[in-house]
Amino acid sequence: MRYVYGITSALLVGGTALALVTQSPVIAQVAQNERSEIAKAVPRAGAPESFADLVEQLQPAVVNISTKQEVTLGVRLDPFAGTREPVTQEQQGGGSGFLISDDGYIVTNNHVVTGGPRGEAVNQVTVTLTNGKEYKATIVGRDAASDLALLRINATGLPFVKFADSSRARVGDWVVAIGNPLGLGSTVTAGIISAVQRNLGTGTAYDRFIQTDTAINRGNSGGPLFDLHGNVVGINNMLISPVGANIGVNFAIPAEAAIPVINALKSGEKIQRGYLGISIAPVDEDLAAALGLPKERGEFVQRVEDNGAAAKAGLKRGDVVTKVDGKEVTPSQTLSYIVANTKPGSRIPLEVVRDGKTMTLYAVVATRPPEDQLAGANFDPEDDQAVPEDPKGTADTAVQNELGLSVQTLTPDIARAVGVDAATRGLVIGAASANSDAGRKGLRRGDVIVTANRVPVTTSEALAKVVADAKKAGRDAVLIEVLRRGGPSQFVAIRLKP
To answer: Which UniProt keywords apply (predicted)?
Structure first.
């Protein structure tokens, strides 16, 4: 669920209930949407009297996906043994998908096969065909930025479908969705395309959707949106609703955006996106008035990363970027979208307004860093957070359990955010438990741990090792060197949890 101004924008993950139907024999070597029956199912113009013939050919290529994931809820103390053990729970979920080859490749949404709060893949994926056959699926690849995933089952001679050229989709075109909403297997709904190239304001590389009034609900996620030629024009992704269920405002990832990602996942290639290394803000009415510029045209540069692509091009704080590679920067065509979809290494012109004067700079586009690194660059020391209940790994768990701290490696960007020298090496505290000795002694989010027991620490694994070594030596405390904005480092002895 995402709540925006009181409206729920929900990813369409459903439960694991299944409804199975019998599948007609198919010719595996021919795509379902290439068979001669399709021509008979679709009239030359207008809506068909029935979608039945079309659906009959396409349904066998649409699959139900059910998942299982072991999730850590917390840590439990055994008072008799004096040990701590994780408290886990098996969670179930699922959605829809569709076969794109006769040898078992299946496209779905990444969030359908994501199980934990940190974006981990689920432990088990089961795919069920319309004839009731079940297969264990492997996750070939996932891409969180586009919310796409590629699975594979060990089978051949399977029915499959192909993608459409979604750039030719028009508002008002009829479309058909097939999927498993609310656990009701192989459900068919029809409607029209309500909008194309819909920008939802996320500012990401894939903030372009096909909007449709076709009834889509939880469990439809990852399923295909077909045009009347039987080709996949989009991949159902999310809905907007005040009640969490369909009200006719639904969104699909366009095929043209999905195809390059799916091809990269299939071939094992790393997906690369463009990056300039700047923080930006839209030119709203107030900012436009202050700068004497038209509103909603261009984006304002808030920060420029040292030695980044933008810095090397001569971009400065306070500049307004109005065009990128000849494309106007507008609310519907953001700077982030244009740059992210530009091949790294490309040299592109940037039209910039600086002090009321227009100039052109040239930037060589860099490669976008991993999302967790970008999240670190936006570290806000004032954003108070609780210690996460589901640590990312064993080292994080040990640090949290023994010290009551959540930590991450200090980067130059985070160092600047917390007010220490950018060259400082160590760990930044993300959260400190109020019930821990560290919390009681005043350690807080934004503090930097430089050493532990006089040993430099730059990873949670290094800190966990110091803690483990201290316990082996019979010590019940660790000496932490802490650095905080505006002062010298200080040593604080932190007691380990009994």
So the answer is: Hydrolase, Periplasm, Protease, Repeat, Serine protease, Signal, Stress response
Burial class (CB in 10 A: 0-12, 13-18, 19+), 204: middle
CA atoms within 13 A on the CB side of 126: 14
Percent of the chain predicted with pLDDT > 90: 44
- Identify the pLDDT of residue 20: 30
Q: Taking the domains of the chain in order of start, what are their residue ranges?
A: 2-267, 274-367, 373-495
Q: Does residue 147 have an active-site annotation? A: yes
Tally of CA atoms within 13 A in the half-sphere of 420 that contains its CB: 25
Domain 2-267 CATH class label: mainly beta
Contact, 450 vs 426, CB < 8 A?
yes
Alpha-carbon span 39 to 305, nearest angstrom: 55
Contact 105, 230 (CB under 8 A): no
Tell me which of 111, 166, 406, 433 is the catalytic residue. Answer: 111
Residue of 194, 221, 336, 460 marked catalytic: 221
Q: Single out the catalytic residue among 66, 102, 147, 447.
A: 147
Q: Two tokens at 120?
A: 């981990």
Residues 35-57 have pLDDT tens digits of 766 666 555 556 678 899 999 99
Superfamily of domain 373-495: PDZ domain (2.30.42.10)
**Which H/E stretch holds residue 143?**
strand 134-143
* 373-495 shares the fold of 274-367: yes
CATH number belonging to domain 274-367: 2.30.42.10
Contact predicate 146/205, CB 8 Å: yes
From residue 359, alpha-carbon distances to 89, 315, 320, 351 in Å are 58, 11, 10, 6
Beta carbons of 298 and 315 less than 8 angstroms apart: no
Q: What is the mean pLDDT of residues 228-254?
A: 87
Of the pLDDT bands very low, low, confident and very high (cuts 50, 70, 90), residue 333 is confident
pLDDT at 252: 94
Non-local CB neighbours of 79 within 8 Å, separated by 6+ positions: none
